[in-house]
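haha ok so turns out i had the wrong file open the whole time. this is the CORRECT one, sorry everyone. sequence first:
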Amino acid sequence: MADHLFGITDTGKVRKNNEDVFIAEELMNGQFILAGVIDGVGGYEGGEVAAAVTKEVVLSELEVVGREITTQLNLAFNLANEEIIGRKLLDKQLADMACVATIAVVDKLNNMLYYIHVGDTRLYLFRDKSLIKISHDQSFVGFLEESGRLTEQEAMKHPKRNEINQALGLGSREEMTASYFETGSSPFLPADLILLCSDGLTDLVNSEAISAVLSTDGTLKAKAAKLVALANGAGGKDNITVVLALNDKLPVQHEVARPADLKSEISETQGTAVKPSGAVQSAAPVIRSEEGKSQAEVNPPKHHGSVSSINIRPVTPEQNSLPDNGKVQVNKFLLIFLTVFSILFVIASIWLSISYYNNRPKPEVIAAAPPVNLPEKQLQDSLARLKGDTLFLSAKVFKSPIRLTHALIINRDTLVIKQEGNVVLLCDSAYTGPALFLSPECKHIVADQLVIQGFETGIVSEQNALEMKNVRFIQCKNPIQVFFGFPDGYFVNGRLNKRNYQADSLAKK
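then structure:
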């Protein structure tokens, strides 16, 4: 592999096991780079399991990179979070496991960087020998450092340095806020370098020392090894993981623009030179006839530039007059032309009116849409007024099936639709559309315990935004329809996600 991507992890000097893992892979024939650092939390087995699960999910979800990269990263973290929680419920020995992670996707073609982050692993951008911290530590000490209440050295020695507020596996999706995962994007220019690392490096090596190593001329492998050595030399109290990714495109060199030479332009009018701009003329120009006789002296118009002499041929009284018989002939011709034009205009107007009348569009009778019933209106109003991320469909409110005459359109970034009791979304006999329509604005929509009955199509989704938990489709010809959009004329590669849906007669917890 060319020297633009390298990752390394080391157990350190104190720990007996390594709960860190990293990702350093090229995707889709080298069009994208996937880089990540995942730091496990929760003991000898737990931390390793959580980190391994997260790596597996991220690699699966990002195997094919789509247009909405941030959406894919969010989905990967949500799936990893649910997978970790599921493992914890099955094995009590893993009850305390979790992990922190920072994942970056580099779009090499468009020189862009996309990332997602949770916890206290870090993402740095190194540009023009300056180290810029992009991610934010989700810990109390990290907040104190970034707000200026603690210096970097004070934060590195703080006893609560490693107490984190957020991680994968600490709670279900419903318990998370909308900003639980930090996401963002940044230009990733030629010669830019990103560093992803675990706190085993940044707890012991300050930013100045990291910047000094990245400024050297060695390979990425040599720089990563040097960073690990510095952390071990400072005590190696934790696992140390480093991933480096370089934009190895050559910087574009632009030619320096040079000012054009300024030359005075000289033009001639009847042999008279025009003075350069800014020159002052001592006397007003004289207008002369062809014979050279002076006719009159006039004041020239004011100019913001050069002033020139002007030659004008005077018009004699003889040239300014026509014979009377010539004027009569002109008037007769003009009268005939106007008369003919008027007749043609009237004929054309009549013909256009008749044509429009014969070809006018026939009125169409449009069938009135079925009226919205009361339960359906209650559902639409509940969705419109919803302030959180979860919409509950309670059997105490909807005591009978909700008969839909229109699609329930979802245009929120994140939403969980959860049923409490036995609530059924039932298709009206006159309606042929879907029960739910997920618009392109949707990033992560969870349908939990829903019952969808009698629809031609149950759920229509744009892109890969839908997650289902124990959803039942009854008498639905097409339970799910998913649309993927691609740029017009592009070559499309990839395959559908490996994480298949499962159908079972028993509800899955």
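The domain at 5-246 is CATH 3.60.40.10 (Phosphatase 2c; domain 1).
again sry for the mixup
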